[in-house]
């Protein structure tokens, strides 16, 4: 085994600072930062242009011969999938199917210029579509009059719904654009993978239930409210359209089988089999040939509408729903983009992504598209078929445009039940996330609680409230982890300068009267009292008051002549502790013990006269390991100083080790040190402090103990 030997002096922080000169660093002032932010030169203008229009950067390095063919193949494949998913996800938004094609076209064009990811496919995302659908059915319900909005006058029910969807999308885009300009892309970090997984699983269940009305051919009222999902399952189930049901089951079985083949043989297949497109074309032809719409009363896609501008009057009615949609849309897109950026070794910018999706949704909403983000399955097609850049996305948008303007009429006979079946089959990935629950329960129960609560809340309360509940639970777990961290008492591994948790190792060395306490988190106002209660296992302030009360009693006995001083006053700790009847002047009891008018100093660990009893303190030295403490706030600083003073006043020497330089500077600037709490208590390492203690309190070899693990 390799070894190393280091010979160096024993260092406290003060000794190390005296011996090694530090470099003085000039910290920039706020004025300097503001001046630098608003300073503009040619280089900065160029960088700003490249940042705002990222496509310039990758177009300059575009390898025409190597990448173009791959982008064409990927663009065509993705475009076919985008057409089908655009039609299908429109049903989730409670809109006529053709509006999904607008979502697969206009946002893609804008993202081509402004987006930083080269591989995600922009367009409809099922969770967002469902959230849009909830707003649409709230303002324009299937049964009953719509909400009283001036812009609805003279419009059909479908036109009113499209206006609501476009308006909430426009507002969502404004929010995303504003967050991007304000550089708050970091907000997505508060949505953990666990929360997103639970949320999307609940959304998948919502989607599954919402598509049952198309699969079964039912006319179910669009419901909003906590238990709408349960109600939808049972309402009008006896009126099932058998033709729709049989068609849907057949489509789902075939698509599922071929998708499994694609997954199993993806390494051998040059391009995944576009089974959804194939089955859609077949179903469309069969529906037209046998006239499903007339003979079997099957609901079909119908004609392509023309786009219109959104109505701004709806903003006030949809602002509450638009914000969670903006967050969810960005969070999902950024998560997918991050996966591909790591895989293909390029950088994405969260703030620029917010700007890109904000602009995409604003311009898309002006042409009656609804909320756009990205779907993992569609992005996987774009990447797996060889897509190198967003040129593949641009070509997929051209495919969508061709379908919309030239051959869309061929899809008019397509049954909506086929689209519903395609949506349900594509939910497999999200629904299978439920398998994470047993793993999370075994590995990290707080994360498991976040997953389960988010999922259940999103199912029962709706996606917007469910997301808020999940975020609240997640933040609570963070607070509890920081407020009640796992503290540990360390011990020396025999024969080394290494210190580990005393409960984990057998060959350890613990000098009598020395305790090493590791603080594993930042110290702030919420956890300072928790740490104070854990430090030594007793209340030093209570001990100090008992000692001062005992001194009062001793002085009274000496004054009355009832106590004769012959040697050091001793003390014995046994039986219950009796409280002194003199509770006056409590402030004096909190001051350091004063022996100046006594002939001898009291030994508090020995027997005291007159049955005076004071709690015994077995610790003479306490080492606080600050290696994991990243910051102290003012409340914690005050609490820490009070705790140190209490310990020092009961004759417990305190040493703080491995303290961050930033914290030391803050302690000095806040005038933390005084006559009792001194900077000399800070040491570089645990071993430095331990050697200092052993030098100050020598331990006899016969008293040295090696604790065995129990």
TrEMBL record:
It is a multi-pass membrane protein. It is found in: Membrane. One of its GO terms (biological process) is transmembrane transport. It holds the Pfam family Sulfate_transp. One of its GO terms (cellular component) is membrane. Its main location: membrane. Keywords: Membrane, Transmembrane, Transmembrane helix. The chain crosses the membrane at residues 68-92, 98-115, 214-235, 242-261, 273-294, 314-334, 391-411, 449-473. Residues 504-693 form the STAS domain. The keyword Transmembrane helix applies. It comes from the Eukaryota. NCBIfam families: sulP (TIGR00815). This is Solute carrier family 26 member 3. It comes from Oncorhynchus kisutch (Coho salmon).
């Amino acid at each position: 085994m390799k070894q190393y030997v280091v010979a160096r002096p024993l260092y406290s922080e003060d000794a190390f600072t005296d011996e090694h000169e530090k470099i003085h660093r000039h910290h920039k002032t706020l004025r300097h930062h503001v001046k630098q932010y608003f300073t503009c030169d040619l280089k900065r203008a160029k960088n700003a242009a490249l940042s705002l229009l990222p496509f310039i950067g990758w177009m300059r390095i575009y390898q025409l011969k190597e990448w173009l063919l791959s982008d064409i193949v990927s663009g065509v494949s993705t475009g076919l999938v985008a057409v089908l998913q655009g039609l299908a996800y429109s049903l989730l938004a409670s809109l006529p199917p053709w509006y999904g094609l607008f979502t697969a076209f206009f946002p893609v064009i804008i993202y081509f210029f402004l987006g930083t990811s080269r591989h995600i496919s922009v367009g409809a995302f099922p969770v967002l579509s469902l959230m849009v659908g909830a707003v649409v059915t709230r303002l324009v319900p299937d049964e009953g009059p719509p909400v009283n909005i001036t812009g609805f006058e003279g419009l059909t029910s479908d036109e009113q719904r499209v206006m609501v969807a476009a308006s909430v999308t426009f507002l969502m885009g404004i929010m995303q654009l504003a967050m991007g300009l304000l550089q708050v892309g970091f907000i997505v970090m508060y949505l953990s993978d666990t929360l997103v997984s639970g949320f999307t699983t609940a959304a998948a269940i919502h989607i599954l239930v919402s598509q049952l009305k198309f699969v079964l051919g039912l006319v179910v009222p669009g419901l909003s409210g906590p238990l709408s999902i349960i109600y939808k399952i049972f309402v009008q189930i006896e009126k099932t359209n058998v033709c729709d049901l049989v068609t849907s089951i057949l489509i789902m079985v075939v698509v599922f089988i071929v998708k499994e083949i694609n997954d199993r043989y993806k390494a051998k297949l040059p391009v995944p089999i576009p089974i959804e497109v194939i089955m859609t074309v077949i179903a469309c032809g069969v529906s037209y040939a046998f006239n499903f719409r007339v003979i079997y009363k099957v609901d079909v896609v119908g004609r392509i509408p023309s786009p219109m501008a959104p109505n701004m009057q709806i903003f006030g009615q949809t602002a509450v729903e638009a914000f969670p949609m903006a967050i969810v849309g960005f969070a999902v897109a950024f998560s997918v983009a991050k996966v591909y950026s790591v895989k293909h070794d390029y950088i994405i910018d969260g703030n620029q992504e917010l700007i890109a999706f904000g602009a995409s949704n604003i311009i898309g909403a002006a042409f009656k598209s609804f909320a756009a983000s990205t779907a993992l399955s569609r992005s996987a097609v774009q990447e797996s078929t060889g897509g190198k850049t967003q040129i593949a996305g641009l070509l997929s948008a051209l495919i969508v445009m061709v379908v919309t303007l030239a051959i869309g009429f061929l899809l008019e006979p397509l049954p909506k039940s086929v689209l519903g079946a395609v949506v349900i089959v594509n939910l497999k990935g999200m629904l299978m996330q439920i398998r994470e629950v047993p793993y999370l329960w075994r590995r990290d129960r707080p994360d498991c609680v976040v997953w389960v609560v988010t999922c259940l809340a999103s199912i029962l309360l709706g996606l917007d409230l469910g997301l808020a509940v999940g975020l609240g639970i997640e933040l609570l777990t963070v607070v509890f982890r920081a407020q009640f961290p796992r503290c540990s008492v360390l011990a020396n591994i025999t024969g080394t300068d290494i210190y580990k948790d005393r409960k984990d190792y057998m060959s350890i060395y613990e000098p009598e009267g020395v305790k090493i306490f590791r603080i594993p988190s930042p110290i702030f106002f919420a956890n300072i009292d928790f740490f104070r209660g854990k430090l030594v296992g007793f209340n030093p302030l209570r001990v100090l008051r008992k000692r001062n009360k005992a001194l009062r009693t001793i002085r009274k006995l000496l004054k009355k002549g009832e106590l004769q001083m012959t040697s050091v006053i001793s003390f014995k700790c046994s039986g219950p502790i009796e409280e002194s009847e003199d509770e006056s002047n409590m402030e004096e009891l909190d001051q350091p013990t004063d022996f100046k008018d006594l002939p001898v100093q009291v030994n508090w660990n020995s027997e005291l006269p007159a049955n005076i009893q004071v709690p015994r303190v077995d610790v003479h030295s306490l080492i606080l390991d600050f290696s994991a403490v990243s910051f102290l706030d003012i409340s914690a600083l005050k609490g820490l100083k009070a705790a140190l003073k209490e310990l020092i006043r009961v004759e417990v020497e305190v040493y703080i080790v491995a303290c961050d330089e930033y914290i030391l500077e803050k302690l000095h600037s806040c005038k933390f040190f005084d006559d009792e709490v001194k900077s000399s208590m800070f040491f570089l390492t645990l071993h430095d402090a331990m050697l200092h203690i052993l030098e100050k309190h020598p331990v006899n070899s016969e008293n040295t103990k090696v604790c065995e693990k129990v």
